[in-house]
TrEMBL record:
Family: Belongs to the short-chain dehydrogenases/reductases (SDR) family.
Pfam families assigned to the protein according to its UniProt record, in alphabetical order: adh_short
Transmembrane segments: none
Gene Ontology MF terms: oxidoreductase activity
Organism: Trametes coccinea (strain BRFM310) (Pycnoporus coccineus)
Protein name as catalogued: NAD-P-binding protein
Family matches, as InterPro entries: NAD(P)-bd_dom_sf, Sc_DH/Rdtase_CS, SDR_fam
PANTHER family linked to this entry: 5-KETO-D-GLUCONATE 5-REDUCTASE (PTHR43669), SHORT-CHAIN DEHYDROGENASE_OXIDOREDUCTASE (PTHR43669:SF11)
The entry's keywords: NADP, Oxidoreductase
Coiled coil: none
Length: 267
């Protein structure tokens, strides 16, 4: 089965820190020597990443932007890198919301979180698909790689909206995989556990979480092994335990339901 080792050009959205940055560097180091486009909001961090090798290119974007800006970003990226055959969606933000104190819930933070973690990713997948499907028609494999979370399976009450956005992206990954099953576009979902990251710095939780999170290096090794194999789902650590317990048979059940709907629509 094709895996990320077969990709010629990989775009990593949300590559300026954490999981996105680690995966971008690990993919760059593959023996297949792909071009890696790193993307994010902070140009200085993109420039630092580019210093790691000539095959690392930069493309600045804030995905929480207008539809027109997203379209321009996709058009420019595909034009500049026609060999682009893999897109990894690592962008994400996380906020704590306490429903026992509803007056403290900031709707702007809620809107930013749901837009960054789900709505913008949905739009970007749709916008990149015409290019990837053209590659598929030529017999070339390509890859859509959403990074969700173990919280898409078992949510955390402290980050309810974050958990909901990841659950939405997880569900989208399942249905996207079903619709693209007869193409050469592979959907590979990475489901991290709690991983060493800057994601929690603004919450003031890093000192506590650092005692229990998975080291970024260890996570990256597991995630890369699944990407190289081309596994459709790559749950890591505690996310793997939850995936095996709660998700067994879900893809197959969704497929049967999809086939039933297709059958009904054709009669």
């Amino acid at each position: 089965m094709p895996g990320i080792k077969d990709a010629k050009c990989v775009l990593v959205l949300g590559a300026t820190s954490g999981i996105g940055r680690a995966l971008a560097l690990a993919i760059h180091d593959l023996d297949s020597k792909p071009t890696v486009i790193v993307s994010g909001r902070r140009q200085e961090r993109l420039d630092e990443l580019a210093s790691h090798g000539e095959r690392i290119k930069t493309a600045r974007v804030d995905i929480n932007t207008s539809e027109d800006n997203l379209k321009k970003f996709v058009t420019d990226t595909v034009s500049n890198y026609p060999d682009l055959d893999a897109v990894i969606f690592s962008s994400g933000i996380q906020h704590i919301f306490d429903f026992t104190k509803p007056d403290t819930i900031d709707f702007n933070k809620f809107q930013d979180e749901i837009s960054t973690n789900y709505i913008s990713i949905f739009k970007l997948i749709v916008l990149f698909l015409p290019h990837l499907l053209k590659l598929s028609d030529k017999g070339r494999p390509s890859f859509v790689v959403p990074i969700t979370s173990g919280l898409s399976i078992v949510p955390s009450a402290t980050v309810p909206d974050y958990s909901a956005t990841k659950a939405a992206l997880h569900s989208l990954s399942i249905t996207l995989r079903l619709q693209l099953a007869k193409t050469n576009v592979q959907v590979i979902e990475i489901l991290p556990p709690l991983v060493e990251s800057e994601l929690h710095d603004h919450q003031g939780k890093t000192p506590v979480l650092s005692k229990v999170w998975m080291p970024l290096k260890e996570f990256t090794e597991h995630a890369m092994a699944g990407l190289i194999r081309g596994d459709p789902n790559i749950p890591v650590g505690t996310a793997s335990q939850d995936f095996n317990h709660f998700e067994k048979g879900k893809q197959e059940a969704a497929q049967k339901f999809y086939e039933r709907m297709l059958s009904m629509s054709s009669t």
